Every structure is written in C-alpha cells, then in structure tokens.
Amino acid sequence: MDFVADLVRAIIALFIIVDPFGNIPIFVGLTQNIPRAKIRKVYDTAVLVGMILLLVFAFAGTAILTAFGLSLQSFEIAGGILLLIIAVRIVISGTHESVESPESIGAVPIAIPLLVGPGAITTTMVTFQTYSKTDGLAIALSIAVLAVVIVMSLTWVILRFINQIDKVLGKTGAIVIARVMALLIAGIAIQYILTGINTFPFAH
C-alpha cells in the first residue's frame, strides 16, 4: 500500500506541473499555422520527447547538469527567454509562424519547455532521489518510471481532443485566443526568468 500511495502522490505532483489541460489554449495557438492533418503528429512527438526527457532526467539529471556545469536555474532562464520570444511572435502575427516540421514544433516549444519545463524536470528528479533514499533504488526507479509513463500517457489522451477544440473555435477564434494566450505565455516566461534569477546560487 505504501508503494501505491507513493506512486499516486508522484503522479499527482507531476500531472499538476505538466498541466496539459491548462496548456490546451496555448497549444491551439501554437499549432494554428500547421495543417490539421499534421497536428496529431505534433502532439505525438511532444509526448514522446517529453517522456524521454523526463526519464533521462529521473535517472541521470544531476549527473547531466553537473557534467555541463549547468543548474536548474539556467534551464528556467533559458526556457523563459524562449517562451518570451514565442509570445512576441504570436502577438505580432496572430500565430506562431514557423517553417519548421511538425516534429520540430512538437519537440520545441510544446514538449520543452511547455509540457516538460524546469518544474517537471525538478519534480521527476526529486521523486527519484527522495524514494531512493527511503525505499531503495528499485522502488524509486519503479515509482519514477511509472509516474512519468502514466502522466505522459494521460497527456497524450488529452491532446487527442485538440482537433475537436480547434474545429469548435474556428480560424478567427483560434487567432483571438492565440493573441490572448500570448500574454499568458509572456507571463509564464517572465516568471521562469525571475524564478531562475532569484534562486540562482550567486544571486544572494
């Protein structure tokens, strides 16, 4: 029962951070310039890339950051700058204009940093490290892997309904929402940057 309870807590924590429901309007705006037939491929790529990234950071996150001399704060600042640029482009053009392939859009910015941002990476790393100290590596590994797989699978199911949402909104509605959501993206971007700066080891 302890394993199930720990797993449920890990799933809930990660799902809240990934927040696929809250990001739906943003995703609709970002994919407005992509043919509807290819939108599903965008989200398939986003979920796959997001799952792989979270699993990699669950197992080797600390080692990876240390090897490159990076901190989670640098991820937050970089992710914030990327999102801010995207927000400005959406405000100016009404959509996220891009000549990139659906796979590329799915990987950046949908998979990272929108679905798998610094918060999700941190949550996954902490989950593995916490349970490895109290329950052993095998249990920690099981909890971390299952939490990531379940959350990203739920996210994939949710994103399967994006086309229906897009049809209801129509082109004009999507453009309006995209511009409104650009303000939200900009706010998230600024928050990422400020959090990264405020928590940076040399900021105090």
Write a structural description.
Helices cover 83% and strands 0% of the residues. By secondary structure, it is mostly helical. The longest helix is centred in the C-terminal third of the chain and has 37 residues, at 162-198. The model has no long low-confidence stretch (mean pLDDT 79).
In short:
With 204 residues, the chain is mostly helical. 83% of the residues lie in helices and 0% in strands. Helix 3 packs across helix 5 and helix 3 crosses helix 6 (118-134).
Q: Low-confidence parts, pLDDT < 50 over ≥5 residues?
A: none
The end-to-end span amounts to 43 Å
Helix content: over 70%
Radius of gyration in whole Å, from Cα? 17 Å
Number of helices: 8
- Main β sheet profile: none
Tally the structural domains: 1
Overall outline: globular
| Backbone structural class | mainly alpha
Counting DSSP E segments of at least 2 residues, the number of strands comes to 0
Task: Give the secondary structure arrangement, pairings included.
Elements: H1 2-18, H2 24-30, H3 36-67, H4 72-93, H5 102-115, H6 118-134, H7 137-159, H8 162-198
Helix pairs in contact: 1-6, 1-7, 2-8, 3-5, 3-6, 3-7, 4-5, 4-8, 6-7
